[in-house]
Write a structure and sequence with these properties.
Homodimer. GO terms for molecular function: metal ion binding; transmembrane ascorbate ferrireductase activity. It comes from Tursiops truncatus. It holds the Pfam family Cytochrom_B561. This protein is mainly alpha-helical and 242 residues long. It is built from eight helices and no strands. The protein has a single domain, classed as Four Helix Bundle (Hemerythrin (Met), subunit A). Helix 3 runs antiparallel to helix 4, helix 3 runs antiparallel to helix 6 and helix 5 packs antiparallel against helix 6. The longest helix has 37 residues. It starts with a helix and ends with a helix.
Length: 242
């Protein structure tokens, strides 16, 4: 029963993450003209999709690797590789999203990094890069001592959750900024809540709900890999709670 509830929760979370990506794609495709990689506004349109996919959904999936019951037993090294590889994929998508917006701005002679959204976003990406390299160097490579890993683990976990929180704030502020920019005329202004504004606001709320659920799972003690003394109990849970 407990395992059934666990996998139902995982399925619901995966579905919600997929909805975040698909709703962003639909918003950009239907109201913003679609996508291209040619330096035009259509290239900029990749930015929200790649950032939601990389910095929110894939980042969350990588962070939740150690919450899977299968990771509670056996060697941790394969799970460490999976954790690092998924974060690397999320980072690559994020860099592509940044390239889309910076290249568009440079072609149009638009200043970079002037808005609060851009400050939040670049801070998030910088922390993400530092977090990944620190995690790779300390927790994946064999040189670090057990004591050093024990000292850095709480910091690693704290910044992992903080980066996700900043990513959510960046996405929400980015959606808001995009809507203020594109819905400026009197008959279709943002304040009149046209259909695009309603849909994009709902997409933003999906991201918030998804992120809060991920943060809850990351912080809830019942979802964490057990200490050595609790392994037997969690193994029983993994095999059906018998």
């Amino acid at each position: 029963m407990a395992m059934g509830w666990f996998y139902l929760s995982v399925l619901a979370l995966c579905s919600l993450g997929l909805m975040c990506i698909l709703s962003t794609i639909y918003w950009i495709s239907y109201w913003q003209g679609g996508f291209a990689w040619d330096g035009t506004i259509l290239m900029f349109n990749w930015h929200p999709v790649l950032m939601v996919t990389g910095m929110v959904v894939f980042y969350s999936a990588a962070s939740l690797v150690y919450r899977l019951p299968q990771s509670w037993v056996g060697p941790k090294l394969p799970w460490k590789f999976g954790h690092a590889a998924m974060h690397l994929l999320a980072f690559i998508l994020t860099v592509l999203g940044l390239h889309a917006v910076f290249d568009f701005h440079s072609r149009r002679k638009i200043p970079n990094l002037y808005s609060l959204h851009s400050w939040l976003g670049i801070t998030t990406v910088f922390l993400f890069a530092c977090q990944w390299f620190l995690g790779f160097a300390v927790f994946l490579l064999p040189w670090a001592s057990v004591r050093l890993r024990s000292l850095l683990k709480p910091i690693h976990v704290f910044f992992g959750a903080s980066i996700l929180s900043l990513a959510i704030a960046s996405v929400i502020s980015g959606i808001n900024e995009k809507l203020f920019s594109s819905l400026r005329n009197g008959t279709n202004s943002y304040s009149r809540l046209p259909s695009e504004a309603v849909f994009a606001n709902c997409s933003g709320m999906l991201v918030v709900v998804f992120g809060l659920l991920v943060l809850y799972i990351l912080l809830a003690s019942s979802w964490k890999r057990p200490e050595l003394g609790m392994q037997a109990e969690r193994q029983a849970l993994l095999h059906g709670g018998e």
